[in-house]
Design brief:
This protein is of the alpha/beta class. Helix content is 40%, strand content 21%. The strands form two sheets. Strands 1, 2, 3, 4, 5, 8, 9 and 10 form an eight-stranded mixed β-sheet that branches. α8 links the parallel β6 and β7. α1 crosses α2, α1 packs across α3 and α1 crosses α4. The longest helix has 28 residues. The relative contact order is 0.14. The mean pLDDT is 91.
Length: 295
Amino acid sequence: MSIELKIQPLRYVLAVREEGSFHGAALKLHRSQPALSMAIRDLEEKLGQPLFEKAHKGQLTPFGEYCLPRFRELINQHDRLANELQHMAKGHQGRVTLATVPSVASRLMPEFLAAFVAEYPDININLHDENAEFVCRLVANGEVDLGISSMWVQDETLAFNPLFEDNVGVVMRQDHPLASRSSLQWQELTEERFIANGTSRLLKHTPAASLVDNNDFFISNMISLLAMLEAGSGITTLPRLAFPVGNDKLCFVPLSEPKLVRQIGIIKQASRSLSPSAQALEKMIHAQLAGMAIS
């Protein structure tokens, strides 16, 4: 029949061995000597052999000498596991998978994740850079813990918590006749060659919907889109965050009519709890990104 070993009596045995007496062990552990002696005696009864010599209370028996390193190994293993579980429960270690749209991944994540890793060095982050639809799909399928994106279609299986708004503007070459304007109305773009992209759906169901309906190109890849714009093949609309910082060939002119924004937020499964490490990431995302201004 197997026996159940409690950790505390094993600690008492090690303390007696290290201090050389039951009295010394009791003082070290801030326990009464009778309580310590009784716990060790109960352990000996479970094992069926004495651990200490009767004539010399602090001296181990041969059986006790055999048990000592095994008790120490079990205690160390217990303490390692308890420490690991405690850190995991507090969100101090673990693994988190995060999916974001490319503009968030390139503009916001480097600095944010550097700060997060500095505060939680034992949490491993996996970052996926995908378009908005794929971010939602990854979250819905449970392939990632959290997403940072906009949600184009309502989904009851997903929870969306807004973080900030990203203003939409017109992107064109620096030498375009409209490039010097402080803002633009959609009617001024009707004669332009319009290049639609994945975010152009923001214009749907607005007075500017005809720009998308009558587009000359549709390009989903950002690198290809920028190349076409730089070549002067047309203009497009983009959220401010998606506009490439430092691009000296293109400019961003805010769209004033209609005034459009892309809402960015945290996406997670509505009916499933987050791991402690994912909770820590979500909390820090809110603390650092919620309500931020995009410029």
